[in-house]
Amino acid sequence: MKPGTRMFVLLFMAVSVLLSPVAGGQPGESADRTLSPFFFVKSDDPELDQLPLKSTRADVRVVGVIADVIVTQVYKNEGKKPLEAIYIFPASTRAAVYGMKMIIGERTIIAEIRERNDARRQYEEAKQQGKSASLLEQQRPNVFQMSVANILPDDVIQVELKYTELLVPTDGIYEFVYPTVVGPRYSNKRPEEAPSSEKWVENPYHRQGKSPAYTFDLTASLAAGLPVQQVTSPSHKVDIRYDGPSRASIRLDPSEKSQGNKDFILRYQLSGGKVESGLLLFEGEKENFFLVMVQPPKRVNVNQIPPREYIFIVDVSGSMYGFPLEMSKKLLKDLIGNLRPTDRFNVLLFSGGSSVMSDKSLSATSENINRAIALIDLQKGGGGTELLPAMKRALSLPRSEGFSRTVVIATDGYVTVEEEVFDLIRNSLGDANMFTFGIGTAVNRYIIEGMARIGMGESFVITKLEETEGQADKFRKMITTPVLTKVKVKFKNFEAYDVEPPSIPDVFAERPILVFGKWRGRPSGKIEVQGSSGNGPHSHKIEVRKEKPIDSNSSLRYLWARHRIAVLSDYNHLRSSPDRVKEVTRLGLDYNLLTAYTSFVAIDTHTRLIDGQATTVKQPLPLPEGVSNYALGSLALRREGSAPVLYHQGKGDRLVAKEKDKKEPSDMEKTHLSIDLDEILATDDRTKETVQKVLQQQIASIELCYEQATKDPSDLKGKITFSLVIDPGGKITKVTLASGRLKDKGLERCLVEKLKGLTLSGIENANSITVSISLRFKTS
Questions:
Q1: 308-480 adopts what CATH topology?
Q2: Among 44, 143, 383, 391, which residue is least crowded by beta carbons within 10 Å?
Q3: How far, in Å, CA of 632 to CA of 616, rounded?
Q4: pLDDT digits (tens, 9 = 90+) for 210-239
């Protein structure tokens, strides 16, 4: 077997399912493969697998509390065939995308905002007519898809998009985040069942550790309006130059050009820890806009804290394997280890399935805390990310009478069920608060921030191991007591309307209260924010006449519309309404904004492709830094062209590889591997079901052994049986190869060690028991 063939077969083995019909043990999905991301495998055909995205660059300008960003993507066709490039990329959850243009040579085409279906139709027509065109669509509020049609050989096409966002400080620290890559999203839908809005999930990814195939660059200018201090980037190495007390220039260090696989984070403070509070006004031709930013009072110490009940929900799926799960473990140890004796708590672990520590919350005794930490410590990471069933189970747990409930979830958010989760929280959370911890270098901030917002709590993002302790401390300070409750905003002699948000929840963090809106007439009167703090009533008044409308605040129209769209979308998640869909569409068209129902389309007037059809290629994305190959689950190896496709065949607990077309298979493609769970022998059905369930949940960790295999797959075929000795606590204390043999002793030792590391919670026996599992290795 050729070295390249051998390497591919080992890769194929690594993503095969050992016991389960579906990655992560999902029930009822054995008939077909699911809609999932997959590994990109470059072919030997120089005319295929071209990577048209050459570079992406962000130019950031921060003035006061508003950031304006220009993103430039450069596409180049280095192959021999015309291409259509499709690229999935992220954006800030607060971004208001208001412009796009396409540059081909010396020609610049300004994109127009259109209803989504109309924009797609115009793009497809231009593509068929041989015209170069670009289409920008929103797949999620923080996930966009760029399609560029008819990139001819040697073409260089540049696409620019513009967005603006508001920077909201917490504890005096301002933070600008530029997301660089979309992490793989788990979906249990079959491709034919998935709506068009979820097709983007099926995107190729490079293997773990591979740098992006395109370069990344970023520059930023900061004009804070007040003296700044401590400008830092915890994510990337940057060069910082101060251009005066209130200005700074930031440039990405040249050594970071290949670091487009983690969020770029920029933080700064104003001197003395101050936060710029006040009023911004913009006077437009048809409408006038305002933004009020009011800093709440400082937190006070409270001696009497009411007893609390905590439900900790921990993501242990494949995308959390390795570094993210280690961060999550450290965080949970800190949070659970510092509970008060008067508190109660419970722990729910989820991946493809879920398991709960106890049927009801337990007292925070040292024994229960140690038990919870030990349970979390055993997790390795594997399987799908079934967040929705886990949330349903957690929120249905019986409440502790007289306790204030707090729900804490730690996840990277790599799921596609954001809307369903938001709906569930809004309907089920009741008087509890939800706090979310995003774990990883490129988390799904949309769901992390959205769950906290709807759950009336706060969100945190942890990108480095050393950040866990500080974020845990911040969380504990927040839940001690809210900073401000019963918040109301009153307008006196200031004619405000279309105000967002319509009501303000309890304020947990020391972050400004934001109020958007429109105003009529002369800018006069007062705006007053009232509430209750730990020291009693609190009030902050702003004299409107002291502030003048200025043209540089023109971004307020986009920010107001974006906020309004987000509010409407949240309500739409709860109960879909055609009227709200129309309203979001109208707002997108009126304010020139990208939304779920409006898209930007740019079409060149020149016909450039006379004959033939462009080949569609999806830009393979790098896995976010620290995310392992298991984020793509077990149904991950597929390729365009003649390479194998891995999918469910529906004949028992097995996976096979089939050819995508009828081309003559190469030596690499002639060898296929399938692994059957042949038999489980146990003392009773409950034990048998528990063993199978746990193995399914931990399959990704077991599959890691295959990457260490050195033998030809033809040498691994046959049936083997392992004998497992399980103690009364559910721990596997002994694993032996009872029958059959593996020629690869390293693989055998690895499998034994992986099985010994499992704990089969749910098995209750007075004495140790023995269970055997039989596996059948096949090649075809």
A1: Rossmann fold (3.40.50)
A2: 44
A3: 22
A4: 788 889 999 999 998 888 888 999 999 999
